[in-house]
Write a structure and sequence with these properties.
Amino acid/polyamine transporter I; globular; mainly alpha
């Protein structure tokens, strides 16, 4: 029998709250399982934020100015989170991607202009990413550039081909490559022993020592905020748009915001890691790095073969993953704006051709990389303005329409990006970059 106290109450045995703990564990497990179903789109998108263009600008900035420009990475990341959240919201609220919504809203001749400019951006993006993968193979295995380029193309075809088995497969492959890049830079940071006090100071206190630092800071932003993934993110969320009710859409958007926060902040730590390692290794030893080949070669005597190998692996993973993402974005753009369908493999080959030609005729890959970033800076304002125009309209977005402060913040971010990219263009064409 159970014991009773003097008030006649039954004294239950003390189980230490075990009965409550089990449901809580199940609830937490259920929430994590539910979240895992939504994770993926932002991780695919995050690849654009840690692509070979970022390697070039971050390593250059860290070697020349130490930890001074880490704050640029943080602010670029905050802008990226805002823009990718808007893109995801547009896709979830309307059930269409951004190019498809433009086709509904703007006249057909305007959409043809949008499509042509977006295709140029897709080719410029593919050029940068493709060259990164090629350089990675060249640095790791001493493979001739042309053969490395052809192999990069084959691997990119394979990654994109897996999309026929479902978007989730591609997301898993891309996320695995992001993990490789992250682990490689975690190892680099461990080996380089940075000054964490300086890292903390320069993460939160903006500083631009001279005009060259301004140019590199603008380049960091230009290499971070990429037009093609703004288009792509609004498409990637469609795969999970099951519940079309407002409540279902709000839940989907809530989960996608978590996905974005996780993926973009991983990208932030990788980008910051590039600057921190470059500052701790190159700047501390008075080495100014201008090319990725030089960075790879310089790491070995300073930190050992393990570090230079990690760098090559990270660059290869960044090039392969971002090349696949750029190709996927190109398909979304073509189908959305002008509703043209051509064989997928032919579409991929067309966007890869400029990179293969550049490699075959022996143009300096780093110069080609800079030119591709300049092309992207011309086109970047387009998707931002298109997205703000559509997400600011209640007749298109319903209850998901941008609040006034969101619209104002979006316009401010667009203005800042346009201004800074104009500075990058000016510095490039006046020979100061």
């Amino acid at each position: 029998m159970q014991a009773e106290d003097t008030a006649g109450r039954v004294n239950l045995p003390d189980t230490g709250g075990a009965e409550l703990a089990v449901p809580r564990k199940r609830e937490r497990k259920g929430k994590l399982l539910q979240l895992s179903k939504y994770l993926g789109p932002a991780f695919v998108v995050s690849v654009a934020y840690i692509d070979p263009g970022n390697f070039a600008t971050n390593i250059s900035g860290g070697s020349k100015f130490g930890y001074t420009l880490v704050w640029v990475i943080m602010w670029s990341n905050l802008m990226a989170i805002f823009l990718q959240t808007l893109s995801a919201k547009l896709g979830i609220a309307t059930g269409h991607n951004l190019p498809e919504m433009c086709a509904k809203v703007f006249p057909r001749p305007v959409n043809w202009v949008f499509w042509i400019m977006s295709e140029v951006a897709a080719m410029a993006t593919d050029l940068a990413e493709f060259l990164g993968g090629t350089l990675g193979l060249n640095l790791l295995f001493h493979m001739p550039m042309l053969y490395a380029g052809l192999l990069t193309g084959l691997i990119t075809f394979f990654i994109c081909y897996t999309e026929k088995y479902g978007q989730k497969i591609v997301e898993i492959i891309i996320t695995a490559l992001v993990a490789v890049i992250s682990v490689a830079y975690l190892l680099e940071i461990f080996l380089s022993k940075p000054d964490w006090a300086q890292v903390g100071i320069h993460t939160f206190i903006p500083s631009l020592p001279n005009s060259e630092a301004v140019m590199i800071a603008v380049g960091m932003l230009g290499a971070t905020v990429m037009p093609h993934v703004i288009y792509l993110h609004s498409q990637l969320v469609q795969y999970r748009c099951v519940d079309k009710s407002d409540e279902g859409k709000r839940h989907h958007l809530k989960m996608e915001k978590i996905d974005i926060a996780l993926a973009m902040n991983i990208a932030f730590f990788v980008n910051a890691g590039m600057v921190i390692v470059s500052a701790a290794v190159f700047n501390r030893n008075g080495v100014v790095v201008e090319t990725m080949q030089q960075a790879h070669k310089s790491l070995e005597p300073l930190l050992g073969s393990l570090s230079s190998g990690a760098f090559g692996i990270a660059l290869l993973a960044a090039g392969l993953s971002s090349s696949a993402v750029g190709t996927m974005a190109g398909q979304t753009v073509m189908k959305g704006f002008v509703n043209i369908s051509i064989p997928v493999n032919l579409r991929r080959l067309i966007t890869m051709l400029p990179a293969l030609i550049i490699i075959a005729i022996g143009i300096n890959p780093m110069k080609a990389l800079v030119l591709s970033q300049v092309a992207l800076s011309f086109i970047l304002p387009l998707p931002i303005i298109q997205m703000l125009f559509i997400t600011g309209r209640k007749d298109l977005m319903g209850s998901f329409v941008n609040k006034k402060w969101v619209q104002a913040l979006g316009i401010l971010i667009a203005a800042v990006i346009i201004l800074l990219n104009a500075v990058l263009l000016y510095l490039t064409f006046t020979g100061q970059s």
